[in-house]
Task: inverse folding
């Protein structure tokens, strides 16, 4: 595997792991479900995504 | 994965050869560890034994469980596919999900327990960590993940209610809540013990709060969603905070950050409350990113360090304390107390809460429960092995000078050196002071709780790879930071989860309390949860007998009892779904953990030895108190009263936990008996079969050599 490819893989993994890619996935999904309708801007989307965690706490283990 | 009944090709000669080699390497390493005596053993053998055993366990036992016992079926749509809402339920690449799941299950537990258990030598701990994970811990995680996935991601509490009954369900719920309180208290105690009288540590941990706030605002307002760059900034600031801690220590600010354990308790309780009522984006979310990166980065660093340095173990294979039960770190004999002290890393009930939380809602294909449930636990087990190594490469004299209770060691290097000599080990006062100076601490005497010991061990290993002697103090505080960081994340997240459980329960009594958006209710329930763990934390800090010595067994018992509940639910599901033949897969670990925890609770409650039995201890101190006498290590009548109160509370709690589990197991046994006697199968609570349409390729932008089965993923 070339270093470039490896770097790409690491970047893909970290983006997926941290949820940074969630917005891209949302855009794609939105385009398929509601073609033509304006999608949420990133700021709004991230705000909703984080605020949801307020009502749905995730346990962290010891 | 194959559908049951279909034929599989016979394994090729290369596969046979590879696995034979893995088996031989693993067996040879076990032979070295277990049989060689009187010579110095390299930690390298522990690593080989662990990795070899994991590979075999994953390749054969986990595959057997997936195919024969659970009968995973990749033609069946998972809840992630059927209910995909892009929020809770969404099919997630299995490697990404493995990362999520691992980050959620791994915390300070597997780092602390093995360090304490090192007082019995390296062999008992190593064996339990590796064998326990393969046959109990990883099995529990995988089976719970599977049955929750088949039920659309139901929680452990809900499954207990559905499968065992309302009574068992209620007992499980109370169990989960009280266990969480104890766990939070003990973890917070570890932080307090690591930071007390250490301006360097206190300053750098305190700095994580502004760093997290900064990250939170940055992510919220300046660069929404750019988690990677935010985390990078955070990690850089974090390292800076560790370095700056050294400057603070030698500056006039040092006094401001030199806090007593009592002050730290108030700080932590206040922090816990504020953190739990603030919105997630401000503190918890950025802290979580930081601790995930630190966790994965530091563990990888340590693994590399251990492999390169391959340090020599200084501890005996099995120490005399294993048999006498008189060890200063925690009392009691090898059986059952090693299996209580090392919970996370071998078998941890808390994982069942995570395996029945978000993870089952994100699995793409049923067969992936093996990689995610079983694989992640093997990774955690490996973390525990490394923590054990870090503790066992220390000179035993130093180890006991750090880990025996302050009441035994006194406060000076001279008194500690004398006390260690009484235990049968040697360390000169000069060496003890030199060890403290090397890591930039005032003293290492009675730095109990496991974190400082691990940090000294890690600084030994890491400084001999990166930076030499000069960086020892940096690595020590790096290790302290790394542990404190994710303990504080756990405390924050745990307080929130506890608050939700409390709101849920109290909402049945008085409606408004159940509303999550109602601020006074939120403050009240958060305060209740914080005060609950704060009480045990405060008691632990002030206990003359040593808070860790007293509370850690309770923590282990609680965590293992949760495992007993999880394994009971799993066994009941297997029996009810007509898999009695395979029920031993979870029933044997259940029997083991039930015997271990009930024996431990029994001893903790009924033992007539005041070092072990809480009530015997209470009686001894209460009698002396009635005579107006003061018993060492208590120094005055107030401390005598503290011992009496604490041992009463701890004893009642140990009895209560044991009672809960006995109730659940008996209730489940009744349900299983009915299921076996019933001529027709009992109604299933599984979601009905829907055919899967999801095609899983090797991953979104995946590597090509990933064949999706066995092989590469076996290595943690």
Result:
């Amino acid at each position: 595997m070339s270093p470039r490819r490896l770097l790409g893989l690491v970047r893909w993994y970290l983006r997926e792991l941290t949820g940074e890619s969630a917005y891209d996935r949302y855009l794609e999904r939105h385009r398929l479900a509601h073609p033509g309708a304006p999608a949420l801007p990133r700021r709004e989307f991230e705000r909703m995504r984080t605020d949801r965690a307020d009502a749905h706490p995730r346990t962290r283990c010891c | 994965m194959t559908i049951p009944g279909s034929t599989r090709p016979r394994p090729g000669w290369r596969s046979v050869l590879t696995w034979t080699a893995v088996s031989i390497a693993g067996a040879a390493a076990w032979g070295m560890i277990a049989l060689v005596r009187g010579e110095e053993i390299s930690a390298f053998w522990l690593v080989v034994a662990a990795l070899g055993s994991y590979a075999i366990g994953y390749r054969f036992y986990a595959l057997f469980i997936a195919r024969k016992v659970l009968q995973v079926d990749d033609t069946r749509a998972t809840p992630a596919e059927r209910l995909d809402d892009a929020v809770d339920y969404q099919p997630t690449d299995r490697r990404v999900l493995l990362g999520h799941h691992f980050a959620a299950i791994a915390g300070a537990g597997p780092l602390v327990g093995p360090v304490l258990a090192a007082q019995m030598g390296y062999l008992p701990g190593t064996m339990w960590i590796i064998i326990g994970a393969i046959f109990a811990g990883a099995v529990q995680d995988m089976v719970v993940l599977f049955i929750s996935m088949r039920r659309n991601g139901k929680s452990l509490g809900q499954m207990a209610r559905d499968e065992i009954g309302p009574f068992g369900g209620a007992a499980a719920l109370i169990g989960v809540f009280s266990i969480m309180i104890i766990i939070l208290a003990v973890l917070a105690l570890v932080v307090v013990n690591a930071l007390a009288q250490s301006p360097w540590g206190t300053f750098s941990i305190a700095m994580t709060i502004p760093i997290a706030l900064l990250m939170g605002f940055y992510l919220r307002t300046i660069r929404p969603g750019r988690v990677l760059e935010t985390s990078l900034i955070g990690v850089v600031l974090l390292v800076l905070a560790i370095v700056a801690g050294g400057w603070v220590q030698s500056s006039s600010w040092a006094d401001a950050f030199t806090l007593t354990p009592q002050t730290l308790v108030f700080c932590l309780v206040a922090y816990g409350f504020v953190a739990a009522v603030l919105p997630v984006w401000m503190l918890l979310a950025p802290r979580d990113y930081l601790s995930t990166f630190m966790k994965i980065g530091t563990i990888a660093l340590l693994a590399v360090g251990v492999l390169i340095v391959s340090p020599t173990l200084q501890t005996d294979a099995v120490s005399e304390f294993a048999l006498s039960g008189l060890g200063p770190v925690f009392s009691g004999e090898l059986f059952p107390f090693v299996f209580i002290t090392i919970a996370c890393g071998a078998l941890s009930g808390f994982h069942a809460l995570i395996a029945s939380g978000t993870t089952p809602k994100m699995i793409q294909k049923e067969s992936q429960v093996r990689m995610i449930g079983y694989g992640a636990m093997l990774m955690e087990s490996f973390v525990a092995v490394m923590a054990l190594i870090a503790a066992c490469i220390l000179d035993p004299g130093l180890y006991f000078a750090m880990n025996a209770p302050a009441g035994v060691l006194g406060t000076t290097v001279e008194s500690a050196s004398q006390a260690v000599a009484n235990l049968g080990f040697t360390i000169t006062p000069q060496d003890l002071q030199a060890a403290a100076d090397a890591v930039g601490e005032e003293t290492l005497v009675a730095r109990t709780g496991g974190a400082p010991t691990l940090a000294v061990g890690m600084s030994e290993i890491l400084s001999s790879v990166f930076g030499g002697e000069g960086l020892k103090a940096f690595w020590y505080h790096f290790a302290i930071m790394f542990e404190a960081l994710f303990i504080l994340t756990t405390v924050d997240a745990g307080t929130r989860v506890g608050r939700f459980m409390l709101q849920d329960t109290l909402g049945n009594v008085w409606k408004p309390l159940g509303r999550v958006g109602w601020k006074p209710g939120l403050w009240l329930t958060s305060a209740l949860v914080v005060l609950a763990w704060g009480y045990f934390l405060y008691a632990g800090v002030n206990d003359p007998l040593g808070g860790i010595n007293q509370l850690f067994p309770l923590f282990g018992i609680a965590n293992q009892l949760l495992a007993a509940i999880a394994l009971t639910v799993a066994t009941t599901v297997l029996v009810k779904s007509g898999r009695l033949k395979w029920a031993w897969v979870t029933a044997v670990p259940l029997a083991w953990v039930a015997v271990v925890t009930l024996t431990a609770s029994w001893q903790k409650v009924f033992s007539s030895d005041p070092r072990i039995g809480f009530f015997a201890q209470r009686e001894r101190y209460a009698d002396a108190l009635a005579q107006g006498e003061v018993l060492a290590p208590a120094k005055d009548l107030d401390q005598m009263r503290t011992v009496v109160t604490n041992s009463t509370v701890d004893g009642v709690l140990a009895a209560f936990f044991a009672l809960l589990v006995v109730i659940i197991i008996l209730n489940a046994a009744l349900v299983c008996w009915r299921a076996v006697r019933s001529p027709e199968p009992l109604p299933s609570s599984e979601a009905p079969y829907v055919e899967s349409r999801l095609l899983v390729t090797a991953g979104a932008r995946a590597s090509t050599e990933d064949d999706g089965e066995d092989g590469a993923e076996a290595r943690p």
About this structure: Chain B has 28 helices and no strands. Residues 698-716 of chain B have pLDDT under 50 and may be disordered.
